[in-house]
């Protein structure tokens, strides 16, 4: 149906201007019931979107600043691949203190979602020690030597507690004000080991050297696998060290 689905949020619902939302979705600033909002149109399944919208509503109730799904006129939280969410003002983190606040927000996310069920169709990094596919990941498409390096990096996370990770923590997905840190664009969120979210500028999460190395190598391996095959994924794979050096 495409953007025609926006009419389900009201006859006056309208698109205003496109926003950057990555290659997987078409994201626009929209107006719904007279207020600014964000519409994201993609190809995720209903089960996938149900998982994400349930998560966001839960995090909002628990006090985290996140985009909250706005129901259609009929009460649905998504329709035909379209989700409409509240618009959050703010700017990106710029200083070490800002990134420290981001780290604190991420740790609260991780605390609140321990034991959360996996996003439908997704795999965690440690699941991929044995599985070969999960949503956008297909290890069979990667060079065998690269897969071995990625799995060696992920093996260092084995046995750790899992929770929801944001999955795409870059400055553009943070909206900061003096009073709060908001995390937006949850399209890559899933259940995994928390450390994958915490490889932040200036080591804002405060890892010791070994813990930072484990997290950074596992994160590079994840981004190589989830983005394969393009220039960025090749760059990230090049950062994952040879198997012997990780043991």
UniProtKB/TrEMBL annotation:
Protein's UniProt keywords contain Nucleotidyltransferase: no
UniProtKB keywords: Kinase, Transferase
Domain Aminoglycoside phosphotransferase, first and last residues per copy: 16-219
Single GO MF descriptor: kinase activity
Superkingdom, taxonomy of origin: Bacteria
A Pfam match: APH
Annotated InterPro entries: Aminoglycoside_PTrfase, Kinase-like_dom_sf
Name of the protein in question: Ser/Thr protein kinase RdoA (MazF antagonist)
Organism lineage string: Bacteria, Bacillati, Actinomycetota, Actinomycetes, Micromonosporales
